[in-house]
TrEMBL record:
The keyword Ion transport does not apply. It comes from Saccharomyces paradoxus (Yeast). It comes from the Eukaryota. Gene3D superfamilies: 1.25.40.180. GO terms for cellular component: nuclear cap binding complex; nucleus. Belongs to the NCBP1 family. This is Nuclear cap-binding protein complex subunit 1. SUPFAM superfamilies: ARM repeat. Keywords: mRNA capping, mRNA processing, mRNA splicing, mRNA transport, Nucleus, RNA-binding, Transport. It is found in: Nucleus. It holds the Pfam family MIF4G_like.
Length: 861
């Protein structure tokens, strides 16, 4: 037998050593750590399996009863897990509360520790409500929202408490909301509305496990009577925040208005609505003593401490910030016309308002785990009474059949509820709570999880917005466009385009028709989202292939543009190629000289002298000046397009070449005898002409020229709103509109822009509106109505030549509304000036009244 050498032994004679790496001894995980690793995930997923729920309550409660109080590690892990579920997944609060009460009946120390922990959390968040240094993260919903959620959890634990312990907290919160509300008797106080609505919404949870407590019921009745008598709900109709112009497809309802009526209805008739909403888990609940109390009284912030925060103008969290402006209910899935039934629980019911609240909290607080949000929002029904919602994936046709057979059967779809609520966040005005990408990709994830169930739900939403495009808010059309295009790009660009063919055939000749322009922008956006042109082309019927042309400037105008540069020389149409330098094409007279300019642009900075460029331009003038109609204009266009061509590989390349050559360009431009405005206009026109087939890139490259100091935002606005006849691409082309918003937003943080671009854009849009009104030839006091064309009517007989002008009018008016809302702070500063001159600025009485109202409303948002 051979003796095996130990690892590390060395034998000089055999010249041997075992060089295998030393492996650290496997550390033994402490039992309490292992227990937490196995147990805490089960707590976080509690209730997700209905069949296992009772067993989970039994096994988890036994483990907590046995372990709590022995190890700080376990205690801390349990409390932090409970807290995370309570504030991040509020639909599971009742399950955590049940677990707490079962534990409490056998281990009162554990139960007492849990309620004291949450009381301390409640007190902590109360102190944060007036903390100027409060730090927020993307998933921070805000201190008042946390107070709402913790109070809701404690309310479910009401069987543990003396009645006054919880109702006193409610009374204090209502008193605070009333005091805040009375600070301004005539106008809404955002923070007051938030506290009032949040607190009202929690009251039914006091009865989750405690519906037969007469003392509690009496106290709650007194609370509701008190708040109804002393809290004045102020109705607020801010037109700037309306999702639709003119007639809305549904009535605008504020959440603050329905909160108290919803709760009162939920508590009448022996709490019939609550019995139909909350699951009956009382058979799992062990007897509670009902004598618990908190160690201390809750200290709420004073009105004085909150005075600087009542407008919620300082961002304290995504959900709290939503109360800055009135919160309106948002709808997509209206009662089905075929069956006249609801698929979403109505907002004027307690269940409808609660579901809306829970889904928003889920989406906002779990933002860091999008995949989990996608899974949770469509399984919300598991945590409420069975039968509220239909079976997942049921089609509208199936629901119609069910409804006709039994009108009392449920027609509520959890998918509709979840998607509508998320779309409400996407379409929220004046601003969204998270980056749009989060919401868009969340909806993609939801659809990928259950494509057969969710795809038809998306389809109905697509159709709803499309059918109301005539009146949909200008900015919301862009959000709809973005969402639709992202969904399509993630699902192979599949859409039933033939549904829209009739509209394209009927309205295709009109420049400003909103449905045609939506289709154009959608197809062109799809082309930007893919490198496979044929993939998009193959998805379209013949009627829509004409919208595959992504040109910003029509072909005939493009030819005229290049032809205007020459005399005695004809521009060949075939020489003008997509995103390519025309002057370099074979057969163009100055082709060789242009190549010298391109060689110059590619030289390294330290080997380039502007005198060389000036010599090349002199050569150009000597050899070809006779066929160039305006040499100054030609030089600017040629140099700008040469730089654009050199940097055409990517935006980063474009930035590099523009920055490298900006001083050379400034030197040349300084010697050209044209006004600064004229030079700048020629530059941006040259950029967008070069990038004609991809205007999004063109406007981004124009931004790069702006940052290099060669043009200003005002020049970009002037170009965008320049009208060729009656046609103005800047009003309908998505990339141009985005460029307007982007440049206005950039000015907020830029100090080097001369003049006030907010004023300039507003005045330019008003001028376009006035010109359009003049062409419509309406009386000064005559209202202009949104065109309505239905069925098989002959639109020429109905509207004549004025139809496109009316669409144009509502397009430009919608644009004005959007900029006033989006930049309300900046326009607030200009309000007095606008109001003083508005009579002469906008002669048409009806239009003046509308815009004047919006200007005044900027002070309210």
């Amino acid at each position: 037998m051979f003796n095996r050498k130990r690892r590390g032994d060395f034998d000089e004679d055999e010249n041997y050593r075992d060089f295998r790496p030393r492996m650290p001894k496997r550390q033994r995980i402490p039992p309490v750590v292992q227990l937490c690793k196995e147990m805490m995930p089960d707590i976080r997923t509690i209730g997700e399996s209905v069949k296992a729920f009772e067993d989970d309550i039994k096994f988890l409660s036994e483990a907590i009863m046995n372990e709590y109080g022995h190890e700080d590690y376990f205690n801390d892990a349990l409390l932090s897990t409970f807290n995370a579920v309570v504030v991040e997944q509020p639909q599971k609060q009742a399950a955590i509360a049940l677990l707490t009460m079962v534990v409490n009946s056998k281990n009162n120390v554990a139960g007492k520790s849990i309620i004291n922990f949450f009381f301390e959390e409640l007190q902590k968040w109360c102190k944060q409500t007036y903390n100027e240094e409060f730090k927020i993260t993307s998933n921070e919903t805000g201190p008042w929202n946390k107070i709402k959620l913790i109070l809701r959890f404690l309310s479910i634990l009401s069987p543990m408490f003396l009645v006054d312990e919880l109702t006193n907290i409610y009374k204090k919160l209502f008193e605070l909301s009333i005091e805040l509300n009375n600070l301004d008797p005539n106008n809404r106080v955002p923070l007051s509305e938030a506290i009032y609505t949040n607190t009202i919404l929690n009251i039914p949870y006091l009865f989750f496990f405690n519906r037969n407590n007469d003392g509690l019921r009496t106290k709650v009745e007194e609370l509701l009577a008190y708040v109804e008598q002393h809290y004045l709900v102020k109705t607020t109709d801010i037109n700037l925040l309306r999702e639709y112009n003119g007639e809305s497809p549904y009535e605008m309802v504020e959440l603050v208005q329905v909160a108290l009526p919803n709760v009162k209805k939920a508590l009448i008739n022996n709490m019939e609505q609550l019995n139909e909403l909350f699951p009956d888990w009382n058979h799992l609940l062990t007897p509670q003593t009902g004598d618990e109390g908190f160690n201390d009284a809750l200290t709420l912030p004073s009105v004085e401490e909150l005075k600087t925060f009542v407008r919620l103008s300082k961002g304290f969290g995504s959900v709290d910030s939503m109360w800055k402006t009135p919160r309106y209910a948002f709808h997509v899935y209206l009662p089905n016309s075929a069956g006249n039934f609801e698929t979403v629980v109505p907002i004027n019911t307690y269940a409808g308002q609660l579901f809306n609240d829970i889904i928003i909290d889920l989406v906002e607080s779990l933002e860091f785990n999008r995949k989990e949000v996608a899974r949770q929002v469509i399984t919300l029904d598991l945590f409420f009474k069975a039968g509220i919602f239909t079976e997942p994936g049921e089609s509208i046709a199936q629901l119609i059949a069910t409804y006709e057979e039994n009108p009392l059967a449920s027609t509520f779809k959890i998918e509709d509820l979840a998607i509508e609520t998320i779309l409400g966040l996407i379409f929220k005005l004046p601003s969204v709570s998270q980056p749009f990408a989060y919401f868009y990709t969340l909806l993609v994830d939801i659809c990928q999880n259950s494509p057969k169930a969710i795809a038809p739900v998306f389809g109905r939403a697509f159709r709803f917005f499309y059918n109301h495009l005539d009146s949909l808010d200008f900015e919301l059309k862009l959000r709809y466009l973005d969402w639709f295009s992202i969904q399509m790009s993630n699902f192979n660009f599949s859409w039933k385009w033939n549904e829209w063919e009739d509209d394209s055939i009927k309205f295709g000749r009109y420049f400003y028709n909103p449905k045609v322009n939506f289709a154009k922008n959608l197809i062109q956006k799809e082309l930007r989202l893919t490198s496979n042109f044929s993939e998009v082309e193959d998805s379209l019927p013949q009627e829509f292939t004409k919208y595959l042309d992504t040109s910003y400037i029509p072909k005939d105008q493009l030819i005229n543009y290049y032809q205007s540069l020459f005399t005695g020389y004809s521009v060949e149409e075939d020489s003008i190629r997509k995103n390519d330098l025309y002057f370099r094409q074979e057969g163009v007279p100055m082709e060789n000289i242009v190549r010298k300019i391109l060689d110059y642009t590619h030289k390294a900075n330290n080997s380039r002298e502007v005198t060389e460029l000036e010599s090349i331009l002199d050569e150009l003038k000597n050899e070809h000046g006779s066929i160039i109609s305006d040499f100054n204009r030609f030089v600017i266009i040629l140099l700008v397009q040469a730089v654009a061509d050199s940097g055409s590989r990517s935006l980063s390349h474009a930035n590099k070449y523009i920055n490298d050559l900006k001083e050379d360009l400034k030197t040349i431009l300084a010697k050209i005898e044209l006004s600064v405005e004229a030079k700048e206009y020629i530059i941006i026109e040259a950029v967008l002409t070069f990038w004609n087939a991809n205007p999004q890139t063109g406007f981004l490259v124009a931004d790069a020229f702006k940052y290099a100091g060669l043009i200003t935002s005002r020049t970009i606005f002037t170009f965008i709103f320049n009208e060729t006849g009656l046609k103005n691409n800047g009003l309908i082309e998505a990339t141009a509109i985005e460029a307007v918003f982007r440049n206005l937003s950039q000015q907020i943080s830029e100090e080097n822009e001369s003049g006030n671009n907010f004023e300039f854009v507003f005045e330019r849009l008003c001028t376009i509106a006035n010109n359009t009104i003049d062409l419509l030839d309406v009386n000064p006091d005559e209202d202009i109505e949104i065109p309505k064309v239905n069925g098989e009517m002959d639109i020429d007989d109905i509207e004549g030549d004025n139809l496109d002008l009316r669409w144009k009018y509502f397009t430009v008016i919608g644009f004005i509304k959007s900029i006033l809302r989006r930049y309300s702070y900046e326009y607030r500063e200009l309000a007095d000036k606008f109001i003083a001159g508005i009579d002469s600025a906008i002669p048409h009485e009806s239009t003046r009244r509308i815009i004047l109202n919006w200007i005044q409303e900027t002070k309210e948002i």
